[in-house]
Every structure is written in structure tokens, then in C-alpha cells.
Write a structure and sequence with these properties.
Layout (H helix, E strand, L loop, with lengths): L1 H11 L5 H26 L10 H35 L2 H10 L7 H17 L2 H28 L1 H8 L7 H25 L10 H15 L5 H7 L1 H21 L8
Helix pairs in contact: 1-2, 5-6, 5-8, 6-7, 6-8, 8-10, 8-11, 9-11
């Protein structure tokens, strides 16, 4: 919120540029240091930490090895759309994609609140309660996204003003971009809730599903168009959704969450 207010003031007084934006980001990062250090000091125990158990270390190593391919895939998928647009499209499509993805920044506060409050709350609940609140929590995190999508449909000029006057004619692409962003945010939240309870046995499923959809996408989409390139991002969300569905079904079937559940 502080950053948004500062950006508005810089824009109002005509001082908003690349240098001031970078300096503002540095200032915000520096202001976080003291509160974070105090928070760490309050949470960490004062006594000397105990040596980890061998079983815990083994479990951690197993989880890291299982998750590493997914992390590498995540890094790759973030660049894939730009690679596709560079190969199939033009400079205008690449610029339009970069401009429209700025809209995703409006959902970052929701993501921050989700990871700061909802996910820890879900992680601390017992197994019975967790199953009951899982879908309601996912829906709650989608409400701001639905509001943003409604704004894109009813008053697109407001959001297009944010991305700049050069992209004022991208009404349809704006709706697609926001719809895709909401879907991706929802699938990521659904997966993150399960991951923080230890449900990551099938997270690897998103790799073959996502890559398979990307491979067949040129057969059904015109990737030289910005709108179709935006739709290509759905492949990654569908992959995460499949992995999340497998994880939830497996956990629900076995009526367990993780070793720390009550």
C-alpha cells in the first residue's frame, strides 16, 4: 500500500520514471528489514536449537529431490510465452504481452495476504477441518480476481490506462489476460495450500501435462496473435490443476495430511 501511494504521488507530480521506480523499490525493501528482523526474533526460540533427526533430514532431502524438476519447469515456463511470441509474432505482440501482464501486479496483494494468513491458518488446522475449509479458502482468494475481471469487462479503459496509451485498443486481449491471470492464480493457490501440508506427491504431473498441451497448441491456436499466445498460458494452469487434483484425491482417500496433523 505504501508503494502504491508513493507511485501515485510520483505520477501526480510528474516524477515517475525508471530511476524513481527503482529507488522506490530499494527503499521499500530496506524498510522491510527492521520489521522482519523483529519478527524473526519473536518467532525463533531463544534456546540453542537441537540437532535435526536423521529421519527428518531424509524426508527433507526426498521432498527437495521430488520438487526440484518442478521448480526448474516453473522457471522455464515463465519464459516460454515470450519465446513463442518472438518466434511466431512481431515486436508489437511481444510488447503487448509485456504490457498486459502488468495487470497481474494488481493481484499481488491478494497473493501476499494468502501466504501470510490463509495458508498458515490452513496448515495449522486438523485434518477434518482442513478438508472442510479447503475449497472455501480457494474461492475466497478468487473473489478479488473475479472483481478485477468484472472491471476489465465493464470498464476496460481503466485497466488499459494502467498499461499505457499505446495499448488502448487491446480490449479483448485485456479480458483474456485477466481471465488467464485469475485462473493461474487460483490453481497456484489451490496447489500451495496442499503443498504447505505436505501434499506434493503428484506435483510432477504438471510437467508432462503442461508440455503436452504446449506441443499441441500450434495445432489449435494461432500463436502469431497476442490473444492466442495469452491462452497458451492456460496449459501451465491446467497442469497445476491436474497435479493438485491428484494430490487432493490421494490425501482425501487416505484421510491424512502430513505427519504433524492432529
Amino acid at each position: 500500500f505504501f508503494r502504491l501511494c508513493c507511485v501515485f504521488l510520483l505520477f501526480y507530480f510528474g516524477l515517475l520514471n525508471l530511476l524513481t521506480a527503482v529507488l522506490l523499490s530499494v527503499l521499500v525493501a530496506l524498510l522491510r528489514i527492521v520489521p522482519i528482523l523483529k519478527w524473526i526474533d519473536q518467532l525463533l526460540p531463544k534456546e540453542k536449537p537441537k540437532a535435526p533427526l536423521d529421519t527428518d533430514l531424509t524426508e527433507i532431502k526426498t521432498g527437495v529431490k521430488r520438487q526440484m524438476p518442478v521448480e526448474l519447469y516453473t522457471v522455464f515456463q515463465s519464459q516460454l510465452i515470450l519465446i513463442v511470441l518472438t518466434f511466431y509474432g512481431t515486436v508489437n505482440e511481444v510488447a503487448g504481452f509485456g504490457a498486459l501482464t502488468r495487470i497481474n501486479q494488481l493481484l499481488l496483494p491478494v497473493e501476499a495476504l494468502t501466504f501470510a494468513f490463509l495458508i498458515p491458518y490452513f496448515s495449522r488446522t486438523n485434518k477434518i477441518q482442513a478438508f472442510k475449509i479447503y475449497f472455501p479458502l480457494v474461492f475466497v482468494t478468487l473473489i478479488p480476481g473475479f472483481m478485477l475481471l468484472s472491471l476489465a469487462v465493464i470498464f476496460p479503459q481503466i485497466l488499459l490506462w494502467i498499461v499505457g496509451p499505446n495499448y488502448a485498443d487491446l480490449n479483448n486481449e485485456l479480458i483474456i489476460a485477466v481471465s488467464v491471470a485469475v485462473f493461474l492464480r487460483g490453481t497456484h493457490t489451490a496447489w500451495a495450500l496442499l503443498a504447505h501440508r505436505g501434499w506434493v506427491k503428484f506435483s510432477w504431473v504438471q510437467i508432462p501435462v503442461g508440455l503436452s498441451l504446449c506441443l499441441i497448441s500450434p495445432l489449435v491456436l494461432d500463436l502469431s496473435k497476442l490473444s492466442d499466445a495469452l491462452l497458451l498460458q492456460l496449459a501451465f494452469g491446467i497442469g497445476v490443476l491436474c497435479a493438485t487434483s491428484f494430490d487432493f484425491y490421494f490425501a482425501y482417500k487416505n484421510r491424512r495430511l502430513n505427519t504433524h496433523s492432529n
